[in-house]
Amino acid sequence: MRKLIVSGILTLIVLSGCSSEAGVTTDEKVTGLVSDYLGALESKDISAMVKYTDDLRFPDKNEQKKQYSHIEAEITDTKIIEIKKVSETEFEATVEMVSDGDLNELTFPIQKQEENWKIIVGQDF
């Protein structure tokens, strides 16, 4: 009887974990990704910035990390303005940030690549 109760509790825990993950919408995942990326920009967390992006300028992730380590801009006051669904595999995020004291509004494409969503950067260079 005790094994049955323990087994039942474990099953409920596993199922509730699965349902909460399934309950996260694509919009929420993309919004979370953008929010995490903005936080990484502000804290200059290079590993996270590389993780969340597909930088078209650097096909090699090691080169991307190396170049990101030379970023001197002071980025603060980041904010998501809008996230718009373009298709099932693409969103567009408009964000606002202060870079070295200047207010900038930028728009980034976000694409589903295999199982993960990535913010596309470097397309303007």
Automatic annotation (TrEMBL):
Keywords: Lipoprotein, Signal. Residues 1-22 form the signal peptide. The lineage of its organism: Bacteria, Bacillati, Bacillota, Bacilli, Bacillales. This is Lipoprotein.
